[in-house]
Design goal:
heterodimer, A: about 180 residues, mainly alpha, Rna Polymerase Sigma Factor, Chain: A, globular, B: about 400 residues, alpha+beta, Neuraminidase, four-stranded antiparallel beta sheet, 5 helices
Chain lengths: ~180, ~400
């Protein structure tokens, strides 16, 4: 293995989990997340020579990943989610651990009802902490699209997750 | 102050919940998988990126691109047809390419639509056609544009007054503009919707897939060609969908000729076919998508026809190369003769960045030259009716359609 290939292997082995975490939020499924990351890493491998620094490589891989997931011409692959999945869990009063598990499942299902683009802006803005401008650039859309999609996604999450008190205080001003 | 800043704690809660959820993702060793996939991509590209510019120059010199239309026969090449080479430059160029590629940052290059590089202009100075008018308001009809990327706004520009208006924001799918320019069809969550200018939005069908087939209006505007599991024609009055003949079922991106007699569509290998609108048989447009180097020396392909002239003799396509992904641009930059597979030589100067037929067979060509963007409207007889500067308000948008 030459030095460049070794660098790539190192990049893949150190950064894959971080990419998989984002990909999991985008797809809601471990296998689909792995497929998405595999494609992003393969494209990064193709471009490796031109990516001088590892930071560039990760940004590149993420960009490929987001583009692939929200591409106009490619149906995004996401885990199946049924409407009945939204029935609140009536067995409340469990311990904190099971509450947390339920909360995660409900959030996962709520995310999966968003459009691919709405989900992507939520992950970019609130998981990866990108600015609106950075998110727009990564998705290849306008800043105003990021703004409107974020607002719609947050509205939808608020509507679907009242029990969680997530985003609890409904906005009364500034909208 | 934005709502966002007023509610930082809410968003903190969302942030921490997202991090909790992401913890479910398990680590995996992806190295072998990624490299295997990378090699597969490389094999697909291998047929493509060899000596692209040279080939283009040779072809230009050979005059192969001349289109068999009497009036145009001797017009010198203006915008050199785009061709060859790989797409998505930063994604697909090979690792063996020379070091001169230097430091492509991930942020920029792969944003640009999939376009082969433009060859230099030929040595002979092109002689563009002379327009009958240079006034934009002499151009009839409406020109439609779309933003880049996903969820684009669709904009209508009226040359009569140069005004623009957004007719659909955040389009959730590919769209079809009606030939009268007053209706737009699109798909949201599988529902086929039609919005009328100044009117309401109606659902006209369900379970429609707009990925391989944008909703396409019939020339008279009473039917829509759409895809359920297979392509079919929706009668807007009755709501009934009649599947296309079986022989056409595997086609994609169908487009109607202006007289309604002909359908042009793409095959899965990025070739083009022409079929009678009622018949189940079709003929193949030569050259494009052909994998035999002797028949298709430049590796040209067309994955997505965007418009057809009045009779089905010519079609606009984003010109691509064989083995290229179908993703990328949706904007045609070449005109193909469906009988010969030849590229039309358009008597305009600068680079063609958009080309589209209306149902009457008029061809609207958008060119960029020295930072100026021009619209040129050719009649069905190839006369240059109007050539005028495009309003700055549509700068940065992609040409989508030209209608009455």
């Amino acid at each position: 293995m030459d030095a460049r290939e070794a660098d790539y292997a190192h990049f893949v082995r150190t950064r894959t989990h971080a990419l998989l975490r984002s990909a999991y939020l985008l797809t809601g499924d471990q296998h689909l997340a792995e497929d998405l990351v595999q494609e992003a890493l393969a494209r990064t491998h193709r471009a490796w020579q031109r990516l001088e620094k590892t930071e560039n490589a990760e940004a590149y891989a993420r960009k490929v990943m987001y583009h692939a997931q929200v591409s106009f011409w490619r149906r995004p692959k996401v885990a199946e989610v049924m409407p009945a999945d939204f029935e609140p869990d009536h067995e409340t009063g469990g311990d904190d651990h099971s509450d947390a598990t339920v909360e995660r499942l409900v959030l996962r299902r709520a995310l999966l009802t968003l459009s691919a683009k709405q989900r992507a802006v939520i992950v970019l803005r609130f998981f990866e902490d990108h600015t609106e401008a950075e998110s727009a650039q990564l998705l290849g859309v306008s800043v105003s699209t990021v703004k409107t999609q974020t607002a719609r996604a947050l509205d939808r999450l608020r509507a679907m997750l009242p029990d969680l008190r997530m985003l609890a205080d409904a906005p009364e001003a500034g909208r | 102050m934005s709502a966002e800043q007023e509610r930082p704690r809410d968003h903190d809660r969302l942030r921490s919940s997202l991090h909790d959820l992401a913890d479910i993702a398990e680590p995996a060793d992806m190295y072998e998988r990624a490299v295997t996939r990378s090699r597969r991509i490389a094999r697909k590209e291998a047929a493509v990126g060899t000596g692209a510019a040279m080939v283009v120059l040779v072809v230009l010199a050979s005059g192969l691109w001349q289109m068999p239309h009497g009036k145009q026969q001797n017009v010198p090449v203006a915008a050199a047809p785009q061709s060859a080479s790989s797409v998505l430059p930063s994604l697909s160029s090979t690792a063996q390419s020379s070091g001169s590629a230097s430091s492509a940052t991930p942020g920029d290059k792969d944003d640009s639509p999939a376009r082969p590089p433009r060859p230099d202009k030929p040595a002979n100075k092109p002689k563009p056609a002379k327009p009958k008018s240079r006034t934009l308001s002499d151009m009839p009809g409406h020109v439609f544009y779309a933003e880049h990327g996903t969820g684009p706004d669709v904009v209508r520009m009226s040359p009569s007054d140069g005004n623009t208006e957004v007719v659909l924001s955040d389009a959730p799918s590919s769209v079809g503009i009606s030939p009268d320019g007053y209706r737009i069809a699109y798909v949201s969550d599988g529902k086929l919707l039609v919005s009328e200018a100044g009117g309401e939005t109606k659902q006209v069908a369900a379970n429609i897939d707009a990925v391989g087939q944008a909703p396409v209006w019939s020339p008279e505007g009473s039917r829509l060609l759409v895809a359920e599991s297979a392509p079919g024609v929706l009668d807007l009055e009755s709501g009934e969908i009649t599947p296309l003949p079986e022989g056409l079922a595997s086609g994609q991106h169908f487009r109607w000729s202006g007289d309604g007699s002909t359908l042009v569509y793409a095959t899965s290998y990025c070739g083009l076919k022409v079929a009678g609108a009622e018949a189940g048989t079709s003929t193949t447009v030569p050259v494009l998508g052909d994998k035999q180097p002797q028949d298709n020396p430049d590796g040209l392909a067309a994955c997505k026809p965007t418009s057809v002239d009045a009779t089905g003799a010519r079609v606009t396509v984003p010109l691509q190369t064989t083995g290229e992904q179908t993703t990328g641009t949706d904007t045609a930059d070449a005109v193909i003769d469906t009988a010969t597979g030849d590229l039309a030589v358009l008597p305009v100067s600068g680079s063609v960045v958009g080309a589209v037929f209306d149902t009457d067979g008029n061809l609207l060509v958008r060119t960029e030259d020295d930072g100026k963007t021009l619209l040129s409207l050719f009649g069905p007889d190839n006369t240059l009716k109007v050539q005028a500067k495009e309003p700055a308000s549509v700068r940065g948008l992609d040409l989508l359609a030209y209608t009455r």
